Amino acid sequence: MKLEQIKKLIDRSENIIVVSHIESDGDSLGSAIALQLALKKMGKKSFVPAPDKFPNRYRFLEKYAERWGYFKDTIDLVIAVDCSTGERIDWGNFKYDGKIPLVNIDHHDGNTNFGNVNWVDPSAAAAGEMIYELIRSIGVRIDENMASALYVAIMTDTGRFSFGNTTAKTFAIASALVELGADPKFLTTETYFKFSEEYFRNIGIALFNSRSYLNGRVLFLTLDRASMHSFSTSHENSEGIIDFAMAVQNVDVAVLFKEISKNKVHASMRSRRGIEISEVAKYFGGGGHPNAAGCTIDGNLAVAQEGVLNRIKLLLGV
Ligand SMILES: [Mn+2]
Question: At CB < 8 A and 24+ separation, what contacts does 247-253 make?
């Protein structure tokens, strides 16, 4: 059993680093924070080398985290959480030489099994569900800080308990976390209802620039540099905007295009069950979940949009 193997590795290690993915989100941060806190409770030294700065939206999680930063001791174990591939790992200032055992705990379908031990469970709605199970099986009592971090991990990856990945188990774990001190109203407000002005304006630009195709089955939203003036294209200033498009009647596929530079465009994609939009993302060198994926395309905005639309038409068979 993977959990047993991971427990053994943790037991015999003293200095453990926890890493998660670039473009950090609620699940990557919440899972890493909770695991680090649990390892410390076990008497281990543990640190998270990245990111230096939490995205604004998740800044409030900083108070649950132990100080993250550089760590000089010899590392005996690396645990990666919520990373679909080894390339997605945000190593920060840590130089990984490939010799330290690497544990891969993830819930992405299509995880590349990049670790020495791989616990991959695509039925888990969030890496946070798996970290909850791991901490429970280690026997560490989940305190209020860990419960809050894990609640945010699960809440964000399930779209506030509304996506198709939400299961009875998700609610059971969330219920346990609330019993352990997670405050749903506080954590929801901090995560979703503290828009920055930039984010607020980006919603408007993306929706204003929307275009529909195939009788409304496909909806493209666009954050182009000309409309954005001085506003940044950073991940945190567009996260979640795509969900507005999926709420439009008859939409099966939505894509948010962000013009990173004149010849680089990032595309976030969503689709309904049964339509594997990740196939389109993979075609352009990206990846993700079947219904939520992304990629970066070399080319200008018009070329990127035309290319993505053509791949979507092929996918839908029209
Ligand atoms: Mn996740």
Answer: 248/216, 248/219, 249/216, 250/215, 250/216, 250/217, 251/212, 251/216, 251/217, 251/218, 251/219, 252/217, 252/218, 252/316, 253/217, 253/218, 253/219, 253/277, 253/312, 253/316
The pLDDT tens digits for 132-163 are: 999 999 999 999 999 999 999 999 999 999 98
State how many domains the chain has. 2
Q: How far is the CA of 58 from the centre of ligand 1 (A)?
A: 15
> Are 27 and 165 within one domain?
yes
Average pLDDT (275-295) is 94
64 alpha carbon – ligand 1 mean position (Å): 19
**What backbone phi and psi angles, to 5 degrees, belong to 47?**
-145, 160
Specify the pairing of strand 218-223 against strand 211-213: antiparallel
* Distance from the alpha carbon of residue 34 to the mean position of ligand 1, in angstroms: 14
Q: State the residue range of the domain holding 81.
A: 2-192
DSSP, collapsed to helix, strand or coil, labels residue 286 as coil
Q: Are residues 136 and 208 in the same domain?
A: no
CA distances from 177 to 145, 171, 236, 275 (A): 10, 10, 26, 33
User: Phi-psi category of 82—alpha, beta or left, where left has phi over 0 and alpha has psi -120 to 50?
Assistant: left
> Could you tell me the distance, in angstroms and rounded to a whole number, from the CA of residue 299 to the centre of ligand 1?
29
Is the Cβ–Cβ distance between 94 and 273 less than 8 Å? no
**Ligand 1 center from residue 174 Cα (angstroms):** 15
Query: Do 275 and 208 have their domain in common?
Result: yes
| Ligand 1 centre distance from Cα of residue 241 (Å) | 18
Å from CA of 154 to ligand 1 middle? 8
Give the Å distance between the CA of 197 and the centre of ligand 1.
26
Q: Please determine, for residue 219, whether its predicted confidence score (pLDDT) is greater than 90.
A: yes
CATH number, domain of 151, equals 3.90.1640.10
163 Cα: distance to centroid of ligand 1 (angstroms): 13
